[in-house]
Amino acid sequence: MMNPSKLNAPYMHAETVTIVLLPGLDGTGALFAPFVEALGPGCEAIVVAYPAELALDYAALEQFARARLPVGRPYFLLGESFSGPIAIALAAALPDGLVGLVLSCTFARNPHPYLAPFKSVIGLLPVKSEAAGAMLMPLLFGRHGSVEAHSALRQSLKRVAAATLRRRVRSVLEVDTTARFAGLHLPMLYLQASRDRIVFARSGAQLARLAPAMTVVSLDGPHMLLQALPAEAAREVGQFMRRVLHDAGR
Question: Which among 40, 75, 180, 218 could disulfide-bond with 8, CB atoms 3.0 to 4.6 Å apart, if both were Cys?
């Protein structure tokens, strides 16, 4: 893997760029560690961690995240997987300072509509079982599933209450932020994993149709793209941020 510090030279200059990171389904933010490291010292990453013991829906998590946005400076917002709808909702509210939106392996509405009729039985899902975790790892990481990556995900999930995870899964099956996304008018980058077995390409394609000006970058990796390919993802995000700030004359 390329040394993350070497990625800084092409696009990270003297000033600091700020990016707010909204996490995947675990909500801990701990899994961003390799991506944050790859962004390098020229980027200040604000990692939002959702309450692990509270079974909050998307609306409540949006308010939680809103309270953690920086004030008095330009910043970018990144929504990973589960947090895509939250990032979209926040961007649609036109918060002061937001200059660009990054969406990674995510969606504006339920990516698996055929599962919606089964949301009433989500309470029966064994979300904390070892067997469920073992089944999910290949889907999440594919061939990039190292022992360290699996361990980091397991540790993150252990910190989150089962009721919280089930509420988040149900929220995914109920969400639809397409109208708000269609109304966005700011620079956007969509990171797509070519080997994503959780959020299929159709979710990204739908967003691209709604926002033709959005930059779409496909990387050869799994759903856990920021964890599996942190250097490559950081390069794309860094270039996007620098381009936006340059065009804005900042």
Answer: 40
